[in-house]
Amino acid sequence: MTDKDKSTVLIIDDELPICRNCVKILSSLECEVEYALNGYDALKMIETRSFDIVITDLKMSRMGGMEVLSRIQEHYPEITVIVMTGYASISSAIEVMKMGAFDYLPKPFTPQELRSLVQQALNKRVIRFQNQKLEKEETRRSISHQLIGNSPQIKKVIQMVQKVAPTDSTVLVYGESGTGKEIIARAVHANSKRNDRVFFAVDCGTLSDNLLESELFGYTKGGFTGAHKDKEGIFKLADQGTVFLDEIGNIDKEVQGKLLRFLETKEFLPVGSTELQKVDVRLIFATNRDLEQMVQKGLFREDFYYRIFVYPITLPALKERRMDILPIAYFFLKQFCEKMGKKINSFDESSVYRLVEFDWPGNVRQLKNTVERAVILCEGDQISLTDLPLFGGLGDAEEMFKNIPETNEELIKVKKEIRQQAILKVERNFVLHALMKNDWNATKASSKVGLQRSNFQNLMKKHNISRPDEEK
Question: Are 435 and 450 contacting, i.e. CB atoms less than 8 angstroms apart?
């Protein structure tokens, strides 16, 4: 795109009212729209100025849409072409799609249909150019570690990290599972005056309250059953450094109270000890739960909530910052290629679109696992849909027009086959999604989804799914 502010669209139709109507419909989009009444004039206009999208009628008295499409594909392949016609048929749709048209718009169409299709084309152009740029770009590690992307949301997060990092203020990171809350904590530590000291990450959701307390504060010999010798806790070991407490909403009120006292005084009592110890530790907390709502329900201490709610940073879900998906995917692609000794340069166009369009319920963690598996599976120098476990096997627009049933008997047979394929696809994605959300731990994944481990493993065998490290 030559114009960074507005995209350009050219309408080609030999009926002036249709051209003017299309211009009016598209005026609400962020683009400049012009029109030509025949293919010859349109190609002359394309020679003198740059257009991002061409929307051409199929049947025109002077140079039809097929010829226009053919010449654009030959001389201006970067232009996206949409074909519209009042003579809609499956054969003509297949032909224009084979020739490289972006899509096919039968007349009559509604304003919303036209706007939606043009917006899709504009979005895909942006993705295509971003992909081309990232393919050539070297991965740069910013001072904020793996906080990758150029979306307004992530830029705001980076600014907040850079402001709070040099201070000793307590930070609370909000975000869905897999969004990268620990990355934020590490970024705060890396850009702080404590960056040459130790960083401890503790997942409060995986430890019982008693175990968490003894891990954080340490214990003395005989402090509890099984305490055969003194043990220094994480707070003692992290003196002058940073401790990150993830999933803080999972701890009970008693431990919350002890953490509150530590925040106020920097002092703590090891389990079984009567001697206070004092350290200088910065605490960073994180949660995927609504702590304010938990306070209202009496599940979280109000005084502790207000004490840790000093500098909250909200990390948006990946689907809320789609323009960051490709940069993150490329970061992981280059990371895993280096790790596995592979030379994979990029993602192909189809896989790029699917990556950006997917909602990523497991967020950055799920994207990372998906790219890792794709690198393992890929045998060429470019990731394709078949290498992406969540998307492999999905057909394109042209496939929709193949093997059309001609009798009711054939229709019933095709519907049954499609249903069976869909079930297999859903099953496969169900298993992969469960594994990715649980770090490829089959026992944990089966428990989370409510299946017996043996049944879950049978599904893994059925779809030939195994841990990525087992395939190396």
Answer: no
> CA 252, 258, 264, 269: dihedral to nearest 10 degrees?
-160
CATH number assigned to the domain with residue range 320-470, chosen from the 4 options 1.10.579.10, 3.40.50.1980, 1.10.8.60, 3.40.50.2000: 1.10.8.60
The string of pLDDT tens digits covering residues 356-402 is: 988 898 899 999 999 998 999 888 899 998 888 666 444 443 444 44
Would you call 467 exposed, middle or buried from its count of C-beta atoms within 10 A (0-12, 13-18, 19+)? middle
Q: Residue 71: CB partners within 8 Å, gap ≥ 6?
A: 43
Q: Which residues pair with 200 in a beta bridge?
A: 243
Measured CA to CA in angstroms, residue 178 lies from 170, 316, 442, 462 at distances of 22, 11, 18, 28
Contact 423/429 with Cβ under 8 angstroms? no
User: Does the domain formed by 7-136 have CATH 3.40.50.2300?
Assistant: yes
Structure tokens at 347: 């993602």
Structure tokens at 348: 């192909």
Q: Is the pTM of this model over 0.85?
A: no
